[in-house]
Design brief:
Number of strands: 9
Oligomer: single chain
Structural class: alpha+beta
Order of helices and strands: HHHEEHEHEEHEEHHHHHHHHEEHH
Helix content: 40-55%
Mean pLDDT: 89
Number of helices: 16
Shape: globular
Distance between the termini: 70 Å
Low-confidence stretches: 1-21
Largest sheet: 5 strands, antiparallel
Strand content: 5-15%
């Protein structure tokens, strides 16, 4: 900072002009201090982690917040696990003091995780996870065998629709098929998305139950060497898969097919290999080898229509299933199953900043996920420029109100946190009243 007043909480703070984006990593340690000091939503994050247990209601579990595990990854990959904090202020102070490059959130344990060794020495297996959000982790690098614009951690708007599809398919199923309501989608900061299911019944699922939910979504079972990458069993698709296919086929035909040039001369053999009837594959190959151009439509669309027509013309049920298998193979969500199955698995906290991209892990509104652009999310350098040029801070105004962090934080508070806490309060009140009534009934006997 160039003004001493900034450190004293003055409104007319000024921060050194950020360096170019390609030096994001080099400037990260100093910038992250400023970010945690001015922009990270400490209070709202702690409210989330407390789930209403930070109030004065007699049903509040005052030990709840202090039994949550946090993990800090510091500069030079120094890893601090099993961190815990009794209060929101303690957590905020620890974050500001350590300035972690990454914060991971773990489960709520039966006892304070920082004191786990004392309990283990007692001989009783008392240190165990008792609650954790049901989470999903989808990385676009797991789609490298079906995307050609990027690879690895790189991402662009040609392949990002694969993440949009994942959000739409999984979010709808979680709400409609499982009855969950409090779901938070978060951009991972670089190459994927995270999903946090925060309903009480989701947080209290054991590992076996989590595995059952994760397996419900398992369709992609292939690898880069297998022709068929999905398993669609039965004569007819499960209703969940029918609903998903409507989303998948729409995005496949409108976006993925052409953006990835899936039926170009260089790539159509990959799809022909997935057709079970060799005579059909040979007929299509003959058409495409002799007709390499189309003036009316994109060649990928023309060839896809030919493939669907020929497979649909045949009476063999397996051929019709081939079309579905192709679409599922190229577009269906590829979930990291192990992350979802185990309660003690940690996941990166929302509103962290990815040190290699400088991008903030902001929430994604699933109803507007088509509009989300990972290349246009707030970055540290952009945020610091916005603070510098934002003018004087009005009374009662948060610093993030004057930056591009304002919209994602307001969405987090208004659309996710407030409804969640309202539900937690109602559940807490209902549980407390039920216990009181049960006690009265016992006395009545």
């Amino acid at each position: 900072m160039t003004k001493e007043e900034a450190g004293n909480g003055r409104d007319d703070m000024l921060i050194d002009d950020p360096e170019p984006q390609d030096k994001e990593l080099e400037a990260f340690p100093e910038r992250i201090k400023l970010y945690y000091g001015w922009l990270f939503p400490h209070a709202d994050m702690s409210k989330w982690m407390a789930y209403g247990n930070d109030g004065k209601h007699p049903a509040c579990d005052q030990s709840y917040f202090g039994r949550r595990e946090y993990s800090f990854t510091l500069e030079n990959d120094i890893y601090m696990r099993f961190q815990s904090y009794k209060t929101a202020l303690e957590l905020e102070k620890a974050i500001k003091d350590h300035c972690p490059f990454k914060i991971d959130i773990g489960p709520v344990y039966s006892v304070d995780p920082a004191k786990r060794h004392a309990y283990s020495q007692s001989g009783d297996n008392i240190f165990t996870p008792v609650e954790k959000e049901l989470v999903f982790d989808i990385d676009i690098s797991d789609y490298d065998d079906v995307r050609y614009c990027c690879s690895g951690a790189d991402v662009c708007m040609d392949c990002w629709p694969l993440m949009t599809i994942a959000i739409k398919v999984i979010d709808t199923a979680l709400r409609d098929d499982f009855g969950f309501n409090h779901i938070l989608w978060v951009y991972s900061g670089r190459r994927g998305v995270h999903c946090w299911v925060c309903d009480t019944k989701a947080r209290r699922l054991n590992n076996e139950q989590r595995s059952a939910v994760a397996e419900y979504f398992r369709v992609y079972k292939g690898n880069s060497n297998s022709k068929s990458k999905v398993s669609l069993v039965g004569a007819a698709l499960h209703p969940f898969l029918v609903r998903s296919y409507n989303v998948l086929s729409d995005y496949f035909e409108r976006k993925i097919l052409c953006s990835q040039q899936l039926l170009s001369d260089e790539r159509y053999e990959n799809i022909l290999d997935m057709i079970s009837d060799e005579s059909v594959a040979s007929e299509l190959r003959g058409k495409w080898q002799g007709n390499r151009r189309s003036n009316a439509k994109d060649i990928n669309i023309v060839r896809w229509e030919q493939l669907k027509h020929l497979c649909g013309r045949k009476k063999t049920p397996g051929l019709r299933r081939c079309v579905e298998e192709i679409v599922f193979s190229y577009t269906y969500p590829r979930i990291d199953m192990e992350v979802s199955k185990h309660m003690n698995h940690l996941l990166k906290s929302p509103f962290c900043v990815h040190p290699k991209t400088g991008r903030v892990c902001i929430p994604i509104n699933p109803n507007l996920c088509d509009e989300f652009d990972p290349t246009n999310v707030p970055t540290l350098s952009k945020l610091l420029r916005e603070i510098n040029t934002g003018g004087l801070q009005a009374e009662g105004e948060k610093v993030w109100d004057r930056t591009s962090m304002g919209k994602p934080i307001r969405y987090f508070k208004d659309s996710f946190l407030q409804p969640l806490l309202k539900s937690c309060k109602e559940e807490m009140e209902a549980s407390y009243n039920a216990k009181i009534q049960q006690s009265k009934n016992s006395l009545g006997w």
